[in-house]
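Protein 1 of 2
SEQ + STRUCT:
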Amino acid sequence: MGRELRRDRDLDIPGIDLPGSHGAAEFVKGFDGHPDVSRDWSPQPRHVGVIGAGNVALDVARVLAKHAEDVPVTEIPHELHRGLAVNRATDVHVFARRGLVQARFTPKELRELDHVPGVEVVVDPEDVEFDEGSLAALRAGEQTRMVVRTLQDWALRDRRPAHDPALRRLHLHFLAAPVAVLGADRVTGLRTERIELDGRGGVRGTGVFTDHPLQALYRATGYIGSELPELPFDALSGTLPHAAGRVLDFDDQHVPGVYACGWIKRGPVGPIGHIVPSTRPPCVLETVGSLLADADDLAPAPVPDPAAVVELLEERGVRHTTWDGRLQLDEHARGLGEERGRERLGVAPGEERADLARVGQRPGALKSWALHQS
């Protein structure tokens, strides 16, 4: 499959590599059913932390706060669904270094937090703090106002009884900068410093520290691309240098036949909607436009036959399947899901899934495989 092009951005604080400290990228790929990620996940901690102030942090926190009965019909892999059945989490804490206005949540993703059965979202009224820079940002953006309004409502509402044994709480902490992960042999907590707004839209430390007891920690502090052999790479932004999608060498010359699109082109910026701004061509259309404009000058394929692509993949040992194999694999996954009242179940991780997709093109093979697995 080649190298992973997306990984978690490093967070340089003491203890970040302790057992029990995880990157959000691996976790998100796991509950999205990525075939190359282990599905052996059985959450046991009662107190879990998530570092981040974007939609990925919300996604991770929402899943960590759920029980299996909360997600009966989603496409979360079966193994992770079984893990949720023994989820013991009572409190999930999300830590954001800046204030409410600077959070990078989208309104829809944020509101969905409050729709998880048995989960109360908690915002500390003391975190509802604004300076002149914050007020200017509020005036400038309708989406920002929607997010802040939701957070303010949660901060002001009455809390549910603390003694309710069935209640799980999802705490959103603002102006809380992580400074150290606590623990000797594994994660036992997170130390944060209280941050204050500086009046110009920035922040500064106060020297006031708080230790939060935790048994697991996930960092959702952003993604960064990975370098590819023989291509120039901007290590700071994690992107390939380009001009309108044409990858450039170190002399700013187009590398023939090489184009970039998505986060490796522009960095991990925003949700899908951010790739189609109205002020300039969408990311993918810009790159495809460059490719089409260059088409007459591109070197032709040595063997202009679709079958040659399959032969090249086989030669290089790349896992793959045909479209027919993919359709049969999906049919099999839907059959497994129907038995459990779900739309589909992921049938296998990694190479096993690719092998199944290939044998799926042989009559009766899927049924034999399923019987063997059971």
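Protein 2 of 2
SEQ + STRUCT:
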Amino acid sequence: MKQDLTIPHGALDGIEAFLRVAERRSFSAAAADLGVTPSAISQTIKALEARIGAPLFMRTTRSVGLTQAGEMFLERAAPAYSGIADAYEAARNLGNRPAGRLRINLMRGAVQPLFEPIIAGFCETYPEIELEIYADDALSDLSAGGFDAGVRMSESLDADVIAVRLTGPFRFVAAASPAYLDRHGRPETPEELRDHRCVRFRLATGAMMPWSFEKGNREIEIPVTGPVIVNDWTAANVAMRSGIAIGMLAEPVAKAMVQAGELELVLTDYAASTSGLFLYYPSRKQVMPKLRAFIDYVRAHLPNDVTGHGTEEAHARTRKQ
């Protein structure tokens, strides 16, 4: 019996709009992303809901949420749409030409040290690539979000991804403004932080980031308190530079502020090391020319004090160097 592979006319209309509204939880934000008006997005979603025969979103004046039908539709539509997008990109880049939109999902704290040194040169070198940088501290599902790759520290990655080292290992260090330290003193051991004002960082999970230190083979975790809680590294840096409290940040990020006299490092003998930053993508995903161009460019052009050496590609559980 001959199989009917005909897709009903208009069956795919509105899928991209639906996925973007579901991701952003906002009609206006989705409209801005897609370059259309909020009214156009609303009409597109209404038409899709009419074809499906069920509402997909719960709308209020303050928020947008998915209905049960919307959750079910998202679960099936997102990977299917991602597969269609991959097929389109594979055909488009058949001639091995780096082109198209490259969506990178990365932790907010990596934006400045990773992209500031290379973004101008990359965009000039590859004018046919449209680079989209999506800052997000949650560990997002790349396929569901329509991302080509993500950037995270290796400790947070699953075993079933391909990971490419972008930076060498670096330390998380405690720092404060010289004015704060002149007023409150300079702690000499991590335990003394209990008597200091500290900037606390709320993770995407809702938990507070622990303050961890190392001395020899011993790991030290200190519960801290303070007047400021943030969920963004830029806000944490502002709080530290303004003299409110001591904070924790990646040492490569602290370097420029220390050189400018805005911050002073403390407890450096106890600073804990991380494995560094890795670009990762699903192991089943073909490396498109646009992504390969990005990987090669970043590895070649990051400054020497940021880059490190490691295996080119490895599974997450086996790549710590």
